[in-house]
Amino acid sequence: MSTLINHPSIPNRQIWAAVGSMAMCAAMLIASEFMPVSLLTPIASDLRASVGMAGQAISISGLFAVVTSLVIPSVTSRLDRRNVLVGLAGLMLVSLVLIAEAGSFTTLMAARALLGITVGGFWSLATATIMRLVPEESLPKALGVLYTGNAVATSFAAPVGSYLGGVIGWRGVFWALVPIVAINLVLLLVTIPSMKSERSQGNGNVLSLLGRPHVASAMLGVMLTFGGAFAVFTYFRPFFESYTHADVAELSMLLLGMGLAGFAGTYGASAIMSKRLYHLLMGLPVALAAVTIALLPSGHNFWAVAALVIAWGAVNAAIPVAWSTWLSKGVKDKPENGGGLMVASIQLSIMVGAELGGTLLDHYSIGATFIGGATLLILSAIVVGNGRRLQPRAE
């Protein structure tokens, strides 16, 4: 693959400024996509919807992200990569304004659909863009910068959103994101150099990878794992309110503890990944299911819940690290197609998981939601097994 770093007109400082702008975009996307998790109750009340219906705002963005991640490589094949990324950031900006001004549940869902297009498009193109921006020896550092934006938003979006929602209202939270995203859009336009699309190397349709048995098994494992996790994660606020009776300050503390624990989970998983990859792919969802179930009998004790939520955050953060590592080993010959398929699988699982959790919450109870999520996590561990079915036949 060619790289722009050798072009004499592009200074090194601009290259890293571009990487930083993309990391900022990643942070804004994560914050925008998952902010409703900490604001479900007030959003539902204001728009006269059930909490389960409000949770579908997570689902609809996932649906559009799935479709986008599968089609955007061919749709944008002749377009300048910079213009595509700037356009996606523009869609995010429009989405945030529509969410903040939403007068009905239908408007909210339409705005979240636009956000889903941005999510699917950005993450499908992000790694390939970074690979074209920096030389091969700097790629790990550049990807680390990109995913730092992801980690920061994952840690702070929910607790900050919860706190600010109590101060300025849920609409104010989304309005607060608008100027930040506008600045990010300008930075992307200024820092990312013109990146004319490279000619296709004939990698074929993204879905063709499912013809490989080990990839099909892995994607099933991915969907069950992330689906189970998001069936639970999406509805943590109703659990904290109904079981733990947490006020806004306590809720923010719980979500912040969960987010900060993610740094420890990411670091711990990375330290042992090379030797224990398949053990982690099977063990992490089992551990997450166990912690989820343990929350139910402990739900009325704030400090017990706090300890379990911290454990939940650490385990959950290690899961995408494990699956990303599998991707680098399991689809070495077609990493971009594999990445697109992974994005689609994860986003589809978010959609299905949030829908399942909301349905169980509306028709049964929050306990049923947690049990349903835990069941999917256990099924994912069964699919992974000892890891043999996830390994290419050549191994």
Automatic annotation (TrEMBL):
Transmembrane segments: 15-34, 54-72, 84-103, 109-130, 142-161, 173-194, 215-236, 248-270, 277-296, 302-327, 339-358, 364-384
Primary subcellular site in the record, as a coarse category: membrane
Localization annotation: Cell membrane
Keyword Ion transport: no
Gene3D superfamilies xref list: MFS general substrate transporter like domains
Pfam families: MFS_1
Keywords carried by this UniProt record: Cell membrane, Membrane, Transmembrane, Transmembrane helix
Domain Major facilitator superfamily (MFS) profile span(s) in chain numbering: 1-392
Membrane topology recorded in Swiss-Prot or TrEMBL: Multi-pass membrane protein
Protein name per UniProt: MFS transporter
Organism listed in the record: Paraburkholderia kirstenboschensis
